[in-house]
Amino acid sequence: MSRAGSKPALKHLDPSLIRDVQPIPGNDSVLSGHINFRSQVGDSRFVVGEGEYAMEVVVEVRPTKLDYRTDYEDLLEAVGGLARQLVLEFLRATTTAAIAQHGQDTLRVEWLLLLRSEITSLEHALGFIEWNPHKRLSRESHVLPSGSIRRPTTITRRAIARGRGEGEWVTSTGIGRHRSRLPASAPFETTDNGENRWIRQQLERAVTALSLLRQFFEEIRGRRAGQKTPSRSDAIVNELRSMEEAISPFLSRSPFAEASGSVPPSFASLTLQGRPGYREAYQSLMRLNMALTVGGEALNVPVRDLSALYEIWCFLAVVQQVSRALDLVVDVTDLVELRDNGIRLSVAPGFPSTIQLQGDSGYASVSYNREFRMLSGLQKPDIVIELVRDGMPPVLLLLDAKYRVVTTPEYVESFGCPGPPTDAVGQLHRYRDAIIVRYPKYGRGRPVVRAAALFPLSADHAELWSHHPYYRSIEEVGIGALPFLPTNTSMVASWVREALEATPETLAWPGPDFIAWSQFRARDGH
């Protein structure tokens, strides 16, 4: 309210937040209205102005989950970690012992286990090179007494012909008059060559990237210093430091210590790509330096848009779960751009992305922000899994990511424990009714058979979830809700695997039949 009776003004970077704030009828000096922050969390800045005076008001918006800052850091780490993991698996195109460990503890830092496996391979390759270095012949010029030169080279003959050299003039049989000291070059072996220089440069880059990554997690650990239980960042920091210490000593040892020159990053040779030791080091360093540095819009999402970051993590995590269930390696070229200076994650809030996984009897695609334009309006579920099998029409599984947990007494009394908002599950029912697709071979119809709302409930608080009506409704009507966080993926993993392994008849079931429709079909003999 304005003390002077003039008209105050309210400003915000997001005008839609304050569109309902208006002067009250009959008194323009007072503003009143409802501000709906929707999914935004974190600091929100308002400017209240009156004439030439203004005041900034900063409001911290907290969701029901009061540990949203920790969740933001965990999700940021998880998105980068999933990108690293998918890229390493794709580049290696093999299953390592680290990948096979799917326990809850290892799952949380599986990308780190893959890095450790790559570092170990690099150590072995560098150790082999240390004992079997590539050398090249080089010549070094010196001025020597003419009598000590046994095999004159071009540089010596040229000096005699031009009268160059040092010392007094002398005459030699068959040569003639020349200086007593002449320039000469002798061949010698050196490890200062392009191959060793390239490995040194890439090794320095890998050590620097590990150091920067370690510092990132050290900052997270510092912000969580007051927590009673050790942070996951502790283990990650220690492991990254161990990796640094494993490969950095090679920089001060032969042959890389002598390789002091520089080569372009695109340098390549048959020796570098084919000689034992060098081949393995080349491949490991290429994979490491692409996977260690992850960028892209998804990793620049501000804390106020935590819900968008949660959606992106859910998409990448579902891609991983589908690939595991099908035992296939994800072709990450649709998810990331592989560059010499690292990975750029191409998944971004609000933009569609799709990954396809081809199997023996069909394929599965996982889409983010896929749109279905219907007569009843645009339908845009967050994540769509499309399963195409031989001998049956395509089916769709939908997942909507909602970074919200309702903990009100009324909700807990109705459902027995905290969970997602009711409208999140209601939206999935509307998707199943509204989405209609035409397939050339099978005609027009509703392809959605199952759907689940994903919400951020940790494993510690999810013990009662199996008794929640939204969990039981998955079996009863094919639609419900599942907790999903980097530390709690088991229920979604089971849901995905069960759907992918289901028989065609079980998978095609869209929920209980419409009573009247089923009666007409029964009467007509269908």
What does this structure look like?
It holds the Pfam family DUF2357. InterPro entries: DUF2357 (IPR018633), PDDEXK_7 (IPR007505). The chain is of the alpha+beta class. α1 (68-92) runs parallel beside α9 and α3 (110-131) runs parallel beside α6 (232-247). 38% of the residues lie in helices and 24% in strands. The strands form seven sheets. A six-stranded mixed beta sheet has the order 12-13-16-17-20-21, with helices on both faces. Strands 1-4-5 form a three-stranded antiparallel beta sheet, with no helix packed on it. It has helices at 68-92, 104-108, 110-131, 154-162, 194-223, 232-247, 270-274, 278-291, 306-326, 409-415, 422-434, 469-477, 490-501, 504-508, 515-523; strands at residues 9-12, 22-24, 27-32, 42-50, 53-61, 136-145, 166-172, 176-190, 294-295, 336-339, 342-345, 353-358, 362-368, 372-374, 377-379, 383-389, 395-401, 437-439, 443-445, 448-455, 479-483. Residues 94-108 have low confidence and may be disordered. A hairpin with a 3-residue loop joins β7 and β8. It is elongated and about 120 Å long. It has three domains: 9-61, no CATH class; 95-133 and 192-292, no CATH class; 306-523, no CATH class. The protein is built from 15 helices and 21 strands.
